[in-house]
Amino acid sequence: MYDSNPTLDGLTKKIDEDRQGEAFFQGMEEAGQRHFYIESYGCQMNFSDSEIVASILAEQGYSATRNMEAADLILINTCSIREKAEDTVRKRLRIFDQVKQQRPGTLVGVLGCMAERLKAKFLEEERLVDLVVGPDAYRDLPALIATAEDGDKGINVFLSREETYADISPMRLDSNGVSAFISIMRGCDNMCSFCVVPFTRGRERSRNAFSILAEATDLFERGYREVTLLGQNVDSYKWENPETGQTVSFAQLLDMVARVHPDLRIRFSTSHPKDITDEVLFTMKAHENVCKYIHLPVQSGNSRVLELMNRTYDREWYINKVNRIYEIMPDCAISSDIIAGFCTETEEEHQDTLSMIEFARYSMSYMFFYSERPGTLAARKYEDDIPLKTKKRRLQEIIKAQTAVSLAHNQQDIGKTFKVLIEGDSKRSDQEFKGRNSQNKMMVFPKQEGLKTGDYCYVKALEATSATLKGEIVPPPGL
Ligand code: SAH
Ligand code: SF4
Ligand code: F3S
Known about the structure:
This is tRNA-2-methylthio-N(6)-dimethylallyladenosine synthase. By secondary structure, this protein is of the alpha/beta class. Helix content is about 35%, strand content about 20%. The chain has three domains: about 150 residues, Methylthiotransferase, N-terminal domain (Rossmann fold, 3-Layer(aba) Sandwich); about 230 residues, tm_1862 like domain (pyruvate-formate lyase- activating enzyme); about 60 residues, CATH 2.40.50.140. The radius of gyration is 22 Å and the shape is globular. The structure holds S-adenosyl-L-homocysteine (SAH), iron/sulfur cluster and FE3-S4 cluster.
């Protein structure tokens, strides 16, 4: 998920940020081998990329360790989306510096979006860093490590128009063995004025559909029961088969992956409201195993602000899209990303965002205050003129509105029965399972003999908070 947001602390339920900064690990450490340690920040794409990096390093004889002090190579996969995300990385570098001083020879590498944004400047600013590697240059890691071992700095921030790492089988690190990410495209061709991603991830490109299908099939055969198709803008997925010249759209890809097996659940993220088509919605409806959940970030509920953001839709267009989704799939849940206090936003315009939360009935949202990013269109064209205090107050109001809507959304589910994929023990008790329903809501329920992680079961919701549904296992409907 996204980086943590300081203003959220103590204000609301913790959003699902559990994985920020998590160190990846994949089993036993073996003596005599070289070890790498990797921490990941930012979005799911970054976590997915870390699995590609791990796979590339494993080919070179490296194994993963969770113990930074034991690592020959310390990597940090970074995010630039907001200032806070970059601050977190800088703080982690201070810790790595201490480790390096105790263990000279340890290499420190910065990967991902911040590496891409700062390029060689990173090496000037942070003396401890040996490697700076952008998101499209991970294949070059072995050569860059060799350079660094020779005492030089290794840097590759080349952005590619083709790289999709299609042939690299990601090493599933620290997975629950049930759900996995599949990256289906890279980069972004939209130019939302607030956003740094087009600069850090480069041009949009789609991955070979057959390699996606092969990865989904392989995961299913290895016991996985849920895949999330990842991209900054999955609805603009478009792959042309070089042999036949035929193109595969996102709706077609969704259909293909849904046919891998009825017991393999499919999720996807993120959908741009301008690109999600009826064809995608009908494909979702047609397959029981395509989850009825759409992450459809609105950013702002006001048309003038949306125009400044260069989102290419207005309030009315977004409302029509939401109506269409509920019309085709009344049981679909919709979630959102929201930015408070974008340049020149007035109080009335902020009210439009609050009313959109009510209108769209989001099951949940990721909510942020605007953070100006160097080099973006907004940074060049507009003044970041909303005082921090006002941004934070508006964000609080947004969070308050969303928390109330989330609670009402969950309360409506009380008494209903859902098919749930068991993901493991609940956080609080090993007597309880946790798992998600199709709408991506976390359900917690007492265990029942004979059921294990990776199984499906039916759960009746009995109690709701704004974040979770508590329930009990019931027989499948119709039995
Ligand atoms: N590709 C996705 C989102 C990627 S970034 C999409 O288009 O929806 C994830 C979220 O971070 C964005 O949806 C936005 O809400 C937030 N975000 C991006 N840039 C930001 C900035 N400069 N300040 C605050 N929030 C930002
Ligand atoms: Fe950023 Fe917009 Fe692209 Fe999303 S669609 S990654 S917000 S530029
Ligand atoms: Fe962050 Fe890069 Fe993702 S900026 S949100 S890690 S694409």
